[in-house]
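For consistency, the fold was encoded as tokens, as this record shows:
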Amino acid sequence: MRISAREISVCYNKKGRRITALDGVSFTPRAGELTLITGRSGSGKTTLINTLAGLLAPAEGQVCYDDTDIYRINDKQLSAFRCKNIGYIPQGASALADLTVMQNILLPSALAGTDKAAYAEQLVKTLGLEGLCRSYPDELSGGELRRLAAARALINSPSVIFADEPTNDLDSENARVMLELLKTQAENGAAVIAVTHDSTALAYADSLYSIDGGRLIGKENGYEAALCRPLVS
């Protein structure tokens, strides 16, 4: 699945000031690649992936998956599309408190009407969550919650994966496991887009971008590139 953003802008008001979070960003991450986006806090990283993931409608521009502009379909269609095609690892806590770890992981597959029990067990093992499957979110550490979010995001084998600071709250070993898992998803054909402050993630990146003041700049082989890859209509 090809994802492309064309001239997207996001603005909001804060204490009477108009803030431009994204300023005419065009972006086409590639399937089969792990794309990293770096930048200072407040530069627009999370706003960008939220917009690409169908969570925040832009004031201007388009976000298309293949030939579908996701902000021109209704909420029910968008929710179904996201469940099937998009995985998202958020920065904050997102587990449902009344569900166990395994129930949280399997929730997207249940909503999609698929049986992913075997894959869930595989993800649990990979992410070191064995022994926690019957635990509830309030019994987990921050790092365990982050790994739970990753398993839930990947359970439907989405073709596009977004990760917002995926190594936050993780020690060095679990950060390595997380980055290797995201890299594997890319090698298996997914477009993986991660925003991060973690310099160790750079070794896993196929493509690297930075964002500042709501504008995205590509870095190819160590050189500053044009605003981003050209889009094909």
